[in-house]
Design brief:
eight-stranded mixed beta sheet; N-(1-d-carboxylethyl)-l-norvaline Dehydrogenase, domain 2; globular; Rossmann fold; 2 domains; alpha/beta
């Protein structure tokens, strides 16, 4: 079966490896023709994911070629480009083809969940979300991992389970599309805060203080925005939150660590942002503006926002944790 992956980031490549393991044909879209040449010559894209890739990936710059005769589309580009990419897909997209969103985040300009962007632009309900505690290298190395699979569309859920799951990748179905996406986006914001704490010199105990406290805040946000608070206990929730907040592999964590370590030295902070994609940085601004627009007051998000965007003292995060009323 042909599966189309939009994007050639590390996570896209990891998913491609699993799909080829499952004997599917994989077509991947990229804007960069040099990546096609590199893969054809070396069977690797080492600057993206330093691992040998299997044969059988058709890498192309043509969206029409990628989508022709496909049975499943996996959307795995940066969240801020989702609307643009969907507009480009529109001329070649057939509405009966399920779309699996593997990107975590919220659309910047409209403050929409990515499923809402896809539905609005491509006029389809054949949408599913995969989200959970997996780093790309671990998924690519075929280590045992698990993801939440969120969809209210039976056809999409059934096809993705059949296509992607295998003896190292477990998919756990849920109908909570909203909560699953919010967990995936917000854990990047909390990971920044976790990095700040470690950068300030505090221990894993204090990081776990943050993680435990943040669960209550995330449950509230999920509830007020229409999801199920129980989703915080899923692989997309506490699983992904713990992985991202405690691992130095996380770019969000590293970004926060620099803020804490340098006492918010803007020269070093901006240098990291200029050279690294930090999904949580954009998500923080988007979720802050969204909550503000809906008159939802969340002191944790506000505290992190003021440190990151208004250059407040990073130690304000510790003060918040100690003085919170619950």
């Amino acid at each position: 079966m042909k599966v189309s992956i939009i994007g050639t980031g590390a996570y896209s490549l990891a998913l491609a490896i699993n799909l080829i393991k499952n004997n599917h044909k994989v077509a991947m879209w990229t804007e960069n023709p040099y990546l096609i040449k590199e893969y054809q010559e070396t069977k690797a894209l080492k600057k993206i994911l330093n691992i040998k890739l299997p044969d059988g990936i058709n890498l192309t710059t043509s969206l029409e070629e990628v989508l022709t005769n496909t049975k499943l589309i996996i959307l795995a580009t940066s969240s801020k480009y989702t609307d643009i990419i969907c507009q480009k897909l529109k001329p070649f997209y057939k509405k009966n083809i399920p779309i699996c969103i593997a990107t975590k985040g919220i659309e910047d300009s409209t403050q929409e969940l990515l499923s809402e962007v896809v539905k609005r632009t491509l006029l389809t309900d054949n949408i599913a979300i995969i989200s959970g505690p997996t780093f790309a290298l671990d998924l690519a190395s075929l280590e045992p991992v698990a993801l939440a699979l969120a969809s209210t569309n039976y056809k999409s859920k059934k096809l993705i389970l059949k296509t992607l799951a295998n003896d190292n990748l477990k998919l756990v179905p849920t109908k909570d599309i909203i909560g699953t996406q919010l967990c995936g986006a917000l854990k990047n914001v909390i990971a920044i805060a976790s990095g700040i704490i470690n950068g300030l010199g505090f221990s894993e105990s204090t990081q776990c203080f943050l993680i435990n406290s943040s669960l209550l805040d995330l449950k509230d946000i999920i509830y007020y925005l229409g999801g199920s608070p129980k989703t915080i206990l899923s692989f997309a929730g506490i699983g992904d939150l713990t992985l991202t907040c405690m691992s130095k592999k996380s770019r969000n964590y590293t970004f926060g660590y620099i803020i804490g370590k340098t006492n918010n030295n803007q020269k070093e902070v901006k240098a990291y942002l200029n050279n690294t994609t930090v999904e949580g940085y954009d998500t923080l601004d988007t979720i802050y503006q969204l909550l503000k627009r809906k008159n939802i007051n969340n002191l944790l998000i506000t505290t992190i926002y003021n440190i990151v965007y208004n250059e407040d003292n990073p130690k304000n995060l510790i003060e918040y944790l100690i003085n919170q009323k619950r």
